[in-house]
Amino acid sequence: MDHVAVVRAYYSALDEHDYPALSDHLAPTFVHDRPDRTLDGRETFVSFMRDERPNKRTSHELDEIYENGDGSELVVRGRLLGVDGERLFEFVDVHRFEGDVVAELRTFARDD
């Protein structure tokens, strides 16, 4: 699976609450650095998304996906939408790959 397909599958797994599929797209040493916390380790991240995420009734609308020259990083610009389609915030996610899985994700968000 190419990296763009992996990124699309990552957001689809989040939105569909398919945590085994989500886990499949992440390296065991995966780290998610976001404005409010850092989640260190694939199992920690998947557990947070499954059990502790404040709002699970959301969907990710992707506006653009940018790939660096060698494909080791993808930048995604999009919006997180609530159950009624309301924009909760805009985000930019930087996915860094190791092989075919995401090793690191940095999220930048704007809610104004």
Radius of gyration equals 13 Å
Approximately how much helix is present in the residues? 25-40%
Q: Which structural class should the secondary elements be placed in? A: alpha+beta
Strand tally is: 6
Number of helices: 3
Indicate the overall shape: globular
Largest sheet: 6 strands, mixed
Number of domains: 1
- In the CATH hierarchy, the third-tier topology is known as Nuclear Transport Factor 2, Chain: A
Q: Any idea what the CATH architecture is?
A: Roll
Could you tell me how far the N terminus lies from the C terminus, measured between alpha carbons in angstroms?
35 Å
Just give the CATH class: Alpha Beta
Strand percentage: over 45%
Low-confidence stretches: none
Q: What is the string of SSEs from the N terminus onward?
A: HHEEHEEEE
Strand order of the largest sheet: 2-1-6-5-4-3
Mean pLDDT: 95
Q: How would you describe this structure to a colleague?
A:
The chain is an alpha+beta fold and 112 residues long. The protein has one domain: Nuclear Transport Factor 2, Chain: A, CATH 3.10.450.50. Helices cover 28% and strands 49% of the residues. The chain contains 3 helices and 6 strands, in the order ααββαββββ. The protein has helices at residues 3-16, 19-24, 42-52, and strands at residues 26-34, 37-40, 58-67, 73-82, 87-98, 101-110. The protein has a 6-stranded mixed beta sheet. β1 (26-34) and β2 (37-40) form a beta hairpin.
